[in-house]
Amino acid sequence: MKKVSLLFSMMLMIAAPLFAQSEHGYIAGAGGFAITPQTTSGDALVEGGVRVAPHLMLFGDLGQYHNVQPSDVQPAIDSTVAMLSSSQGLTTIGDGRVPATYALGGLRYEIATSTRVTPYVLGGIGFAHLTPTAQFTYSSGTMPDGTTPTAGTDITSQLVNAGFFTAPASSNAFMYTLGGGIQVPVATHWNVDVGYRFSRIAADTPLNAQGATFGIGYRF
């Protein structure tokens, strides 16, 4: 997270003098979804930008994919479930999630039109912090310590302590985003935003995510 914090601090340092010169910018919040090869994830973000040239904004994002689930996480869980069943007679249900919190900055170009609709394209780079988690739920059989919990009990910590599973470690990875969308004013200073984004996270197993976002912003 130190790299992510440093990136965001640098963006703010750059944006401050630019904002003082122009006083044209925006802040927005958005939510949507992102599709990866393994799953469909919720995506939520906040974004702010300052104008650095006609039609050109310097922007920064802070957001999270709720579960990108790289392909190297679930197989390890499935392997543990199979091993416990065959060698211990212990039946469990294993599930994995990999939230990814990201921070990035880049440029956004707004295309002038003769209508109230403003199309834009953007590109940015930054970092994603991936925090994989695993959960094992008890179904039947005898635990390594000889107990038989109630069906549905979370037994993840017991399996980790007994050495049957190693909790996955968090990691940071380079990330870039390309996309575009449209803004439509709905009131003074306020607009709605619909966008498309493609992102690539250079994790141990590189991950591509693409999806749509829907949000509302305030321009000042």
Would you write up a description of this structure?
With 220 residues, the chain is α+β, with helices and mostly antiparallel strands. The chain has a single domain (2-16, 27-219), classed as Porin, CATH 2.40.160. The chain has three helices and ten strands. The protein has helices spanning 2-22, 74-88, 156-161, and strands at residues 25-35, 40-53, 56-65, 91-97, 100-110, 118-130, 133-140, 171-187, 190-201, 207-219. The strands form two sheets. It has an eight-stranded antiparallel β-barrel with strand order 1-2-3-5-6-8-9-10. A hairpin with a 2-residue loop joins strand 8 (171-187) and strand 9.
Indicate how many domains the architecture comprises. 1
Into which percent range does the helicity of residues fall?
A: 10-25%
Q: What is the succession of H and E elements?
A: HEEEHEEEEHEEE
Largest sheet: 8 strands, antiparallel, barrel
Query: Which fold name corresponds to the CATH topology?
Result: Porin
The beta-strand count equals 10
Major sheet: arrangement of strands: 1-2-3-5-6-8-9-10
| Secondary-structure-derived class | alpha+beta
